[in-house]
Design a protein that fits this description.
The chain is of the alpha+beta class and about 110 residues long. The chain has one domain: Winged helix-like DNA-binding domain superfamily/Winged helix DNA-binding domain (Arc Repressor Mutant, subunit A). Helix content is about 60%, strand content about 15%. Strands 1-2 form a two-stranded antiparallel ribbon. Helix 1 packs across helix 2. It is elongated and about 65 Å long.
Length: about 110
């Protein structure tokens, strides 16, 4: 047997941050574009914006700064608060995964 974990954040019993929203924010950060992030993750633009709006409502701050397209195209970037939020989420996730891995080693030794 092996211990496996999934990490997500909830507020008032509702999921705020989990694997899907995490992947979306990371893809926006990497591509600089919500459209490109959607294409990469194979999700609709509308679905992605829904995730972002729910996340922003729960957290109480903006996660994405967007510039409307045109000749040069639009752009999307994570806000500084969003980057800090992701950094803290990454640290929390890493701590929990390390704990689970250690417990796996303990179980194998028994």
């Amino acid at each position: 047997m092996k211990v496996k974990v999934k990490v997500w954040l909830e507020k008032d019993g509702r999921s705020v941050m989990g694997g899907g929203r995490y992947a979306l924010l990371k893809a926006i950060d990497e591509t600089g574009s919500l459209r490109e992030a959607c294409a990469q993750l194979e999700i609709s633009y509308r679905h992605a914006w829904g995730h972002i709006k729910k996340l922003e409502q729960s957290a109480g701050f903006a996660f994405v700064d967007s510039k409307v397209g045109g000749r040069g195209g639009g752009a999307s970037a994570l806000t500084p608060q969003a980057r800090e939020f992701l950094k803290q989420f990454d640290e929390l996730k890493s701590d929990i995964e390390q704990y689970a891995e250690q417990r796996n080693k303990d179980i194998k030794q028994q």
